Amino acid sequence: MRTVFMLLISSLLPFCLVSCAGNTSSPDSPGSEADSIINESNDSSAASGNTKIELVINSQVLTAVLENNSSADAFASLLENGPLTLSMNDYGNFEKTGELPEPLVRNDSSITAEPGDIILYQGRTITVYYDYNTYNFTRLGKITDITAEELKELLGKNDVTVTFRLKDN
Fold this sequence. Notes:
Elements: H1 2-21, E1 52-57, E2 60-66, H2 70-80, E3 84-91, E4 95-99, E5 109-113, E6 117-121, E7 125-129, E8 133-143, H3 148-155, E9 160-166
Antiparallel strand pairs: 1-2, 1-9, 2-8, 3-4, 3-9, 4-7, 5-8, 6-7, 6-8
């Protein structure tokens, strides 16, 4: 009897695991629909990985290349209305954060942000990294023309004002 029971359990176990694996998010988790717009299509039209933006920090102009995802497209569309100036605060001694005027579509995944990465966090916060951090967020772009040390020095230890604008090609 015990052998029959074990055979029955072992034959049903794969079906149980498959049906349970499909939905791992709870209503309050970051992957739920109750949160802001998340994981929209990665098809892009505006950014297509070639769109460049500029960041103006303490009168120094930096260039960044946007990612090829719908979040970067939404950010580029926001900048088509004109430059966006944000007051950015230091967080954790590895990034500067600022609140966007409106939420953007999210394409969150577990990534390690590096110095120069421009990241969207929870759809509403834009961050500029000057060190490393691993978490679930969306990469919007990458600053291309500054070293990690120079970026950390430029951003400083205090709050900073950053202007994001589309770069004239």
